[in-house]
Amino acid sequence: MVLVAGPAEAARPKHKVKTVVALGFDDGDSTHFKAAQILRSHGVRGTFYINSGDLDAKGKLTVGQVRTLVRQGHMIGGHTLHHVRLTDLTAIDQRVDICADRAALLKLKIPVTTFAYPFGANNGDSQHAARFCGYNAARTVGGLALGTCGYCAPVESARPAQLYSVRTYGSVNHDTTLTDLKKQVTAAERAGGGLLPVVIHKVCARVCGDYSTTEKLLDEFLTWLDTRKKHGTVVRPLESVIGGKVRPVPDESTWQEF
Questions:
Q1: Which end of the chain is more exposed for a tag (fewer CB within 10 A), N or C?
Q2: 107: number of Cβ within 10 Å
Q3: Has residue 14 been placed in a domain?
Q4: Distance of alpha carbon 151 from its chain centroid, rounded?
Q5: Residues 75/39, Cβ–Cβ less than 8 Å
Q6: Is the Cβ–Cβ distance between 54 and 29 less than 8 Å?
Q7: 221 is a domain residue
Q8: Is 120 strand, coil or helix?
Q9: Which residues are CB-neighbours of 14 under 8 A, at least 6 positions away?
Q10: Residue span of the structural domain in which 101 resides
Q11: Is residue 95 domain-resident?
Q12: How many structural domains compose the chain?
């Protein structure tokens, strides 16, 4: 008797997924459109965190480009209207900014379910605001580290315990090397796997600022990540791990309520 695999069985991955590397591109920089092409050439998707008030500005993505990213299967996340440091604001002003940013993106028919705190700056008010405004999770910068100390977690759990403070290593910057990125991934694998968000800002042909990396490094990292599939490591958007529906933004009349 010959057994023929059904569609669901045939689509089952060859290796069990243990570690998810979630690439996040912050600030809606115009260089992200090229970065998305690099991701696409490797058959993977990322999340692009947009400041809705800066769309179409010089050096930033256009509305048309963001819609193209969505059509290509990438995810879009919120990042405040104009990249404000939330911890400098009152609790109410944080809520107004986060909700207004998300409402603007949804009005453009761009689904957004995760948020990234600019500069990674957040507090209890920021986290409450992200939840209130309808996000399913929010990502900070920092909190993960290599090492053997009791508090040095090398990877987030597969389902983060703090959904509104999802941890990362520090941002990829001008002196981050391929070896640095490999160490983060292999440390996550050795720890048994989980979620490894990676924070990226500008992606240029050559280094173009402190918080930048090169197209070459991004391409090399993705090429190397492809070899880690046999270890159960894959590249997926953060939203694929968090899950959840696209929730509506609360009515504007409630944003300033205590």
A1: N
A2: 10
A3: no
A4: 23
A5: no
A6: no
A7: yes
A8: helix
A9: 229
A10: 20-238
A11: yes
A12: 1
Residues 6+ apart with CB under 8 A from 212: 173, 174, 201, 202, 203, 204
N residues, the chain: 258
Does residue 65 sit in helix, strand or coil? helix
1 falls in which pLDDT band (50, 70, 90)?
very low
pLDDT average, residue stretch 116-143: 98
pLDDT for position 149? 72
First vs last Cα of the chain: how many Å apart?
Answer: 68
pLDDT at 147: 80
Extended beta strands in 160-248, E state: 166-168, 194-200, 202-204, 212-214, 233-235
DSSP state of 193: -
The pLDDT score that the predictor gives to residue 14 is 64
Single-letter amino acid code for the residue at 162: Q
What are 43-67's pLDDT values in tens digits? 999 999 999 999 999 999 999 999 9
132 within a domain of the structure (yes/no): yes
pTM above 0.85, yes or no: yes
Backbone angle region of 199, left / alpha / beta, with phi > 0 → left and psi within -120 to 50 → alpha = beta
Gap between the Cα atoms of 19 and 184, Å rounded: 11
In this structure, what CATH number is given to the domain that contains residue 149? 3.20.20.370
Distance, in Å, from the CA atom of 101 to the CA atom of 140, rounded to the nearest integer, reads 17
Are the beta carbons of 249 and 105 closer than 8 angstroms? no
In 61-157, alpha helices (H):
63-71, 91-107, 124-132
